[in-house]
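sanity check this record:
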Amino acid sequence: MLEVNALQILSYDGTFEGFLTCVFHVYERRLTHVDIQPSHVAIDSLFDAREEIITDFEKSKRVWTGLKSKTSSNGRLRLMYAFLSEQAGIERHLLEFIRYVFDSKSIVDDDYSHEAVLKVTQVAKSVGREKHRMEAFVRFRLTKDDLYFATIEPDFNVLPLIQKHFKSRYADQKWLIYDLKRKYGIHYDLKNVEMVTMELPADFDPVNTSEDFFAEEELKFQLLWQNYFKSTNIESRKNMKLHVRHVPKRYWKYLSEKR
C-alpha cells in the first residue's frame, strides 16, 4: 500500500507576529514535515493537512526572545527584512534559518554556507535597497486640508521600515504615505505614526496633482520645481544608463520632476 507523508500546512494572517506564532507551534508540537503559508495563498491539498493558526502575541514574543539570545541584532534585522519581502515561499527559508539558529551552539546567522542563511540574507539585502530608495524618492504633495500626502508602489512591504526616517525628517508636518499596492499607509499627526487604511476617491489619480484635492500653492510649487529641474538639466552631459541605474523607471511616475 502506498504511504503518503502528508505535509502539515500552518496558515496565518500574514503578520510577522502570526508567522512567529506558527514557529512556536512547530516547536511545541515537534512538527518536522511542515510548511507555513499566509492564509490568502494557502491552498488545500488532497494529501496535505492545513490548519489555521491564530496570532498569539505572547507566543510570538517567546520566539522572538529566544532569537535574541541566539542571533546578532543584524541577524534578527535580516529576518524581519526578508519577511517583509512577501516573496512566495519565504516562510520556508525563514523557518529553516530559525531552526539552524536554535540547533546551533554558537551564533550562526552569518554562516552563508547554509542555504537558508544565504537566501534570507540575499532577500533582506534587496528589501534594504528598496527601503533606501523609498526614503529618497517619496514625494509629498500638500492637500487642501494641510496634509502632506504621498503615494508609493514599492516592490516590497517597506512602510514599516521607513516610518522612523520620515518621522525624524518631517517631525513638524502632518503627513501620510500610502502604499497603493498593499492598500494601507502610515500617518503622522505630529506625535505618533500609525498604520491606516482608507478608500481613495474613485476619481483620484495618484500620478497627477489635481486642483480637486491639492492646495493651490502645491500646484504652483510643482510647476516651479519642474521648470527648475528642466533648466538645470544639461543635455550634453546626460547619461541615461547611469541615471536609470540610480533612479529606476518604475519610480518615475511619482516624481514631480519627471512629469
The two ends are 67 Å apart (CA to CA).
